[in-house]
Amino acid sequence: MLWSQSFDPSKDLLDLTSKVILVTGGNHGIGYSTVKHLARKGAKVYLGARNEEKGKAAIARLNEEGIAPENAIYFPCDISTPSQAKQAAEDFMSREDRLDVLVNNAALLGVPGTPVDQIMMVNHFSTLQLTLSLLPLLKKTSEELDSDVRIVAVNSMGHRLSRGADSNIQFKTFEDFNKDFSKDRFPYFSQYCFSKLAILLAMTVLQKKLATTPITVISVHPGTVDTFSDRLSLSRIAKFLTGLFIASPDVGAYNSAFAAASPLIKADPRKYKGAYLNPVGVFKEPGANARREDLQEQCYETTEKYLASLGL
Question: Please, what are the domains in the chain?
Fold first, then answer.
């Protein structure tokens, strides 16, 4: 497989016993593999999924792969709307008294069939609401001696492509988040890239707001990952070629696992605060729009106002 890689979570992560981790969108693909990598090191990992049947089926698969039941636990986590995201956070805090790592993995992809108006809602607004609602527990955990609390946001190189690279972007009003891209050649992809830029901007500001805390916020690009061939009827040759150029979900989750639990980050947290990482653990300057401080502040402030208008 043409995938340059020197990180192996089975060897490079230390024992994670006593750590509590929540991975959203954990029933499939990168999320599932992230749960597996972290649970294998002894963490208590909550597999967040909105569909109970799929979530519990994922837990069963993990158990079949040797993950102990106490290390991988299904958690109902529907972030279709910000209010549902807040409810999920409250449900989590009612059952756990600590949270060491939040991995925001859940996202809607920019593919035909996806409700275009939901892509920004899930990928940005609801993801940020879940994070903000869990902050009290994350902060509480970070106050403990020798704590290592992290927020990991699975992003994409898409934030620098298509509408994510539009130099005329602004986020001054809620309407700015919901542009009509129907005339674009690939409107779903345009909306996806736009949403990934928005959440990257917001996470950058969140790290600044958490400057006085030990909490580390990291955004990661997983690389080009095969999260589809198992659901398609591909020939053996097609699957072989896919494997040559595209990483499996297990390998695609390495960057998430690194950001969530690598001891290198604990050894030098200042270096990683607010970082954007390419696989695996490689510092990468994000796209031009993501580096614009005016967009960062616009995006965060307008998002806060919108969430407040919902009573959240």
Answer: 9-223+253-309 (3.40.50.720)
